[in-house]
Hints:
By secondary structure, the chain is an alpha/beta fold. It has 8 helices and 14 strands. It has 2 domains: 2-149, Rossmann fold, CATH 3.40.50.620; 178-296, Riboflavin kinase-like (Elongation Factor Tu (Ef-tu), domain 3, Beta Barrel). The strands form 3 sheets. The chain has a 6-stranded parallel β-sheet with strand order 1-4-3-2-5-6. It has a 6-stranded antiparallel β-barrel with strand order 9-10-13-12-11-14. The protein is elongated and about 70 Å long.
Amino acid sequence: xxxxxxxxxxxxxxxxxxxxxxxxxxxxxxxxxxxxxxxxxxxxxxxxxxxxxxxxxxxxxxxxxxxxxxxxxxxxxxxxxxxxxxxxxxxxxxxxxxxxxxxxxxxxxxxxxxxxxxxxxxxxxxxxxxxxxxxxxxxxxxxxxxxxxxxxxxxxxxxxxxxxxxxxxxxxxxxxxxxxxxxxxxxxxxxxxxxxxxxxxxxxxxxxxxxxxxxxxxxxxxxxxxxxxxxxxxxxxxxxxxxxxxxxxxxxxxxxxxxxxxxxxxxxxxxxxxxxxxxxxxxxxxxxxxxxxxxxxxx
Length: 299
């Protein structure tokens, strides 16, 4: 897959580009459907326009600024979908101040797409005034109906709401895969190791949305190998040293040194809420129950 950063000189695809437009945070089933429809059109190479920053950083409409997927996550997903070209636009406040007409003139017309593929709820330009009908005045447009999963409209906001409620299985159904975050393993306070429950503390480079605080069954990928485990999302109230929630991962039957290694964490199932215990001994007893529960999930 070609990755092109759009600068002053845009590539001219000579009407051999089917371009998918959207925000694409999460790259859920609805977004994936756009790529499938673009591929089925047979109108040229399949491309996707991505932003190099989260649009919510520049919009004052109260939107959630935490993300489901980073730019690099999106690129990896596009590779798996066999997209031909990822076009990355640098965005800033001025970008989101462009009128729909100016956006089309500056970013779409230079590419000479043979077809634009968008969801029926696609909006663009200042004030979100641009619609698929606006695009159709200048380009051939394929508008794809919204998808539903068990009666729920598949959308980034629906996925975020599911995660905030700890419903990671519901979020996975909308995404078409488990919700995943990744970061580097860093040193923590190591209280878990002292009570026989060593955990990997995950330092997140990207502002991922964390699921509701609690304990989850996860599949973690480290050193290229999948590992069954548990993740605690929260402030570890029994220890009481944290102000902001973190992710700590216990890997079943694993004792290698993975400090400074990248770990990918897929959230599979919610087990229980985070609890403040009166002592480390009570915490240790609960953690053994958590281990037993984890083993039962494999049977």
